[in-house]
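TASK: fixed-backbone design
INPUT:
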């Protein structure tokens, strides 16, 4: 079914049913299933959900102007679409008051519905071809002086006629195809099969190419991951070796200071200090005086066999003993 250009606006003449002045309400028959003067039938199978979500009433389908009221009730009753319109006050909309007065005086007596038919078709009714509008969705309700929109109806009729002609042509083609010989039908099927096979082959080629690209990309990523892992392992090994080399250099450096700047008991402490803070280590070594160690004592066999125990309790004590020994040597030399 072709899509409509715009909603249809239709009314069936004078349909004012009742007026209640005290509540500013009027009841209208908005639509019936009778054939109207334009040769249309509106089936009363209405979709009302959209309209009930915002049931405003317009004047002459003027959607950009203030509504003149709202529908307090919309329903299909006895095969006709009826609506109860409550008109806005003069304070809310002066035009609404004018329309309300015109309705009371009988000057305005018709409403028009704007709707979208989801189905439409041509049918013969009483020997005449009429356009039947069905499965209709209500968009708006208007009080109008002129009940219908001939231009929209003309567009709809044209589209309905085009659809009818297209259906007829399709039916004719279908009827013509049944007259084909078996050989012709086989040849036509062979063409379709060949075209389908070509489409499948093209799709497979695209899929294979994509799969190959994915495989190449995956291998490249795996190689890159392996290279990164190897580089990291090499860096870790280099860092470890550098650390071990630095520790050895520190140990050698501290060994060279034993007996010169530090005592043997201080060796481990200065190794730790050099590893923790090179700046503090250099400062400590720089500020220390040079040690004057006693000459080694040649032990006799008897002394070597006797147990000897020398305990240093503090760096300052060792330094003091070393200095005292130096002074005694000086005095002996002077005597």
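OUTPUT:
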């Amino acid at each position: 079914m072709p899509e409509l250009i715009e909603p249809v606006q239709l009314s069936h003449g004078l349909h004012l049913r009742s007026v209640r002045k005290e509540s500013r309400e009027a009841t209208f028959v908005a639509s019936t299933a009778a054939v109207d003067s334009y040769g249309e039938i509106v089936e009363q199978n209405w979709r009302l959900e959209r309209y009930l979500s915002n049931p405003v009433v317009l004047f002459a389908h003027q959607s950009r102007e203030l509504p003149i009221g709202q529908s307090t009730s919309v329903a299909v009753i006895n095969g006709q679409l009826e609506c109860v319109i409550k008109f806005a006050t003069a304070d809310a909309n002066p035009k609404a008051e004018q329309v309300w007065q015109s309705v009371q005086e009988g000057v305005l007596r018709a409403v028009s519905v704007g709707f979208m038919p989801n189905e439409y078709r041509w049918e013969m009714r009483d020997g005449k071809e009429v356009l039947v509008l069905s499965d209709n969705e209500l968009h708006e309700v208007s009080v109008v002086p002129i009940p219908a929109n001939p231009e929209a109806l003309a567009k709809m009729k044209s589209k309905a006629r085009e659809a009818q002609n297209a259906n007829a042509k399709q039916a004719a083609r279908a009827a013509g195809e049944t007259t084909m010989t078996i050989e012709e039908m086989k040849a036509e099927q062979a063409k379709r099969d060949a075209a389908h096979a070509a489409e499948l082959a093209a799709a497979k080629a695209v899929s294979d190419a994509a799969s190959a690209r994915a495989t190449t990309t995956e291998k490249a990523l795996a190689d890159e991951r392996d290279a990164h892992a190897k580089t990291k392992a090499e860096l870790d090994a280099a860092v470890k070796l550098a650390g071990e080399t630095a520790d050895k250099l520190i140990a050698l450096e501290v060994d060279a200071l034993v007996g010169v700047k530090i005592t043997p008991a201080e060796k481990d402490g200065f190794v730790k200090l050099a590893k923790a803070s090179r700046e503090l280590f250099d400062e400590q070594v720089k500020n220390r005086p040079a040690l004057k160690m006693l000459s080694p004592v040649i032990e006799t066999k008897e002394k070597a066999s006797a147990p000897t125990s020398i305990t240093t309790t503090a760096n300052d004590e060792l330094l003091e003993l070393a200095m005292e020994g130096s002074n005694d040597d000086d005095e002996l030399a002077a005597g």
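COMMENT: Residues 1-5, 294-315, 328-335 have pLDDT under 50 and may be disordered.
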